[in-house]
# Entry
Amino acid sequence: MRLAVPGPTSKGPDEKFTGDVYLNPLHSAESPSRLGFAMVRFAPGARTHWHSHPLGQTLHCTDGTGLVATRDGTVILMHAGETVHTPPGEEHWHGATPDSRLCHLALVEHDDGHTATWLEPVSDQDYQAAQSKTHPQTTAEQR
# Structure
């Protein structure tokens, strides 16, 4: 047994994130284990780019409110204490809502050293569409 000391905080790179995102590695996969995980903190409105994981990803929200969205338009609003799993190969993104910070643990299994395929940034239009699915606008008829 040993105490695992978290790695230093680093700013998420622009080629993987939009907005201010900060990463703390907590555990790197050491054979025979394939599990690695990190604490990821998002400023309001910050988000990942589209990406997928060869063996899936599990996100556990520790603080704040976040969005997890898939290419088919499915959106989950994630709160502290909740966990979301994306299956292997599913293209998705995740990040904070416009009015809240988000902190989550991101758990992934390494597939021969490969953990993710990073794709294009999430457009403002896609981000706003996901937000509107979880916070519908009040129409004049509803007032």
